[in-house]
Amino acid sequence: METNHNTVVVINFGAQYAQLIARRVREARVFSVIVPYSATTEEILHYQPSAIILSGGPASVFEKNAPQLNPEILKLGIPILGICYGFQAIAQSVNGTVAQNDSAEYGRTEISIIDTAEPLFSGQPKNQDVWMSHRDAVVSLPDSFIASAKSPAAAIAAFHNERDRIYGLQWHPEVVHTPYGQQTLQTFLYDIAGCKPTWLADEIIEMQVDKIRDTVQDKHVLCALSGGVDSAVAAALVHKAIGDQLTCVFVDNGLLRKGEKEQVISDFAETNHIRLYVEEAETEFLRDLQGITEPEAKRKIIGNAFIRAFERASKKVADAQGIPSFDYLVQGTLYPDVVESGSATGTSVIKSHHNVGGLPDDMEFKLIEPLRDLFKDEVREVGEALGLKKKIVWRHPFPGPGLAVRIIGEVTKEHLKILADADKIVTEELEKADVSFSLWQCPVVLLANVRSVGVQGDARTYGMPAILRPVVSQDAMTADWARLDYDLLAKISSRITNEVAQITRVALDITSKPPASIEWE
Ligand code: XMP
Prior knowledge:
Oligomer: single chain
Helix content: 25-40%
Bound molecules: xanthosine-5'-monophosphate
Number of strands: 21
Number of domains: 3
Distance between the termini: 37 Å
């Protein structure tokens, strides 16, 4: 992103670690980008970084194919902070010694600051808990480096080289289990690297609005709304930039949650005066899904039906507006998608695997991706700053194939109604108990192909079980099952079995991800 903000480059020695660091830097209101450890000096300098952070990673510096630190980076005169693997990689690079240790340190560990003049730890207690994860340890350093902290298994748990402004920590300041971690990062960013906390939602919006106007000029833009946060915020940003040159399309595939279509129409489009066209395609989707129970087959069928419906809608809308076709398509791509796909720069022409579901070759759009520099929590902040309703901004993520992948068995109109009714009860109760915002998602899964026995009155009855899958997560890559209050679970269970006649049993999924995924299919 062209920016007049100070930028921090995070060098990636292990994906999850680097993303978490980049997010923590953003939380300090400083823009950050992630580059692979193989990035050249020119690629790094392209960002004109105010600081560089070397991430941790799963490897040991002694492994045969361990990712190597480009030693030129240490000579750039830019403040550097090495974390865990990055800390050891610096030590190795400056001819210090890293040794394989007898005793590893994993988890909460007490460190002592041994150089109280160390600016990185300014204002912090001498002894403090940190989160460690290492077996190898730095055992010697050249004279220009000073050891500034120690732990039980590492005589050198932190170092600094004031002259070259190179700092290192054996522990992870980016995780919440290191109480002074964020303070340490902020001291590095503000006091050592001179960064300013200017990365704020209002600035992001202003920058994107200018960029979108520059790109689009007088052309026409289309946006497929999914009902989710990302496409809503992307559309609202583009709308702020170009107003009615944007048209949104919402495909009603019949696989939606109760009230979802109405929410998109009234709470999003009408409230924000955004042009919306709704393509009714339920009959077509359900016809194509008839008799299908295999999850991947469902996804494929839904993807294809979406392409047809979207293509039809875009032609109708273009005709109605008297234009030959739309020039640009808005996509809600987020930064983690960009990092994971390894493409850090440029816009691309849409390809079949993109998450709109893939569009045919003769429907080539240029893409506008106003969220491609943002993490999910920043998207929500931008959404709030744009004035979108809280219930849109804080909506739980919902899979593109919708309720179809939450019905184990055939996707019929009847099964969809049963699941949508149960899902609505869960949504209501989570909101009433004020816990919805603290959950990442709470899928309700219908085991439509199971007959579970029950007793109602004097008779044995048979019905379908429903599974609750409440999870907490930062990014859906990993998740834990949410410890919901028993009384709340009891209320949900009794409401579902009382109000949805076909469901006779409610079960709770208590599996983390990994090993289980969030969705059941
Ligand atoms: P899993 O089940 O892989 O889900 O742990 C991770 C996140 O992705 C969502 N999800 C999907 N989203 N199309 C989507 O657009 C899909 O086919 C799909 N499958 C899972 C899921 O809801 C969770 O947030």
